[in-house]
Amino acid sequence: MEIQQQLIRDLEGKIALVTGGTKGIGKAVTARLSQAGATVIVTARNKPDEHNKPYHFIAADLAKREDVEKVAAEISERYGGVDILINNMGANTFPGGGFSTLADEHWYQALEINLLSSVRLDRALLPKMLERKSGVIIHISSTSGQYPIWESTMAYSAAKAALTSYSKSLADEAGPYGVRVLTVSPGLNKTEAMSDFLGQLAAKEGITFDEMTQKLFDRVGGVPLGRMAEPEETAELIYFLASPKASYISGANYFIDGGNFPVVK
Question: What family is it from (predicted)?
Fold first, then answer.
């Protein structure tokens, strides 16, 4: 699906960091912020495939404290800080099947990847924003944080719920200093990670990929728009919230789920 965009370069002169920015939603966000004129820094564990990439890449596993420190040090030395921080890193790579399948190590890993990576990066980069009395931090959570599926997302959902709560607390603390903090909670996005996730579940249950996709739609109560989101659609919301157009928005959690969420938000 192609989204028609008016080329407004309202992020000229801004430095943005996108974690997990080489695939899926992160890749789409990187492209959108670049299109709006931002100088974009991307972190991920593996080097991106594309050549002549329009961003500065730092290889890092942000689940490791030392890698967070490395990223912060390189950004400080090269750019002096960031104006926009998109904490997009996250993963649901933990065993399904409910509480009995999850050992302590799975819970620790879920928290390291989906919560503490963002907490540590905020702690490293937020002080410069507070000094300048400007900046935007956006945490990418998930509708799973409010609507967990015990069979497959128990640890991931708990960690994302914690991220959402932390994000609101940080917004209240940083707001008086001119720094906006927000949360975006995507629903089902048509990404490589989602395809892998559905493929694994389909293989486990002995059904086709399409059958598994429909089963997931049914499990989450249906998606009124009848499809997954394209990553570019989710990126458009994130860009808007990072832009001057959203200058009075902070502390909120935005769901982008095709109408899926089963309660009034």
Answer: Belongs to the short-chain dehydrogenases/reductases (SDR) family.
Percentage of the chain modeled with pLDDT above 70: 96
In a domain, 168, yes or no: yes
Catalytic residue numbers, as ranges: 156
| Burial (CB count within 10 angstroms: exposed 0-12, middle 13-18, buried 19+), residue 44 | buried
Neighbouring-strand partners of residue 59 = 44
Is 39 in a helix, a strand, or coil?
Answer: strand
- Asked if residues 144 and 183 have their Cβ atoms less than 8 Å apart, the reply is no
What is the DSSP annotation of 175-187? GGGTEEEEEEEE-
Q: Are residues 129 and 213 in the same domain?
A: no
Residues 98, 208 share a domain: no
CB 135 within 8 A of CB 141: no
- Which of 71-75, 160-164, 258-262 is the least confident region? 258-262
Tell me the residue range of the domain where 81 lies: 15-189+230-256
Q: Total domain count for the chain? A: 2
**For residue 1, what pLDDT is reported?**
45
For residue range 98-142, list pLDDT tens digits in order. Answer: 898 889 999 999 999 999 999 999 999 999 999 999 999 999 999
- Can you give the CATH number for the domain in which 54 is found? 3.40.50.720
Domain match, 53 and 102 both: yes
Contacts of 252 (CB under 8 A, 6+ apart): 182, 183
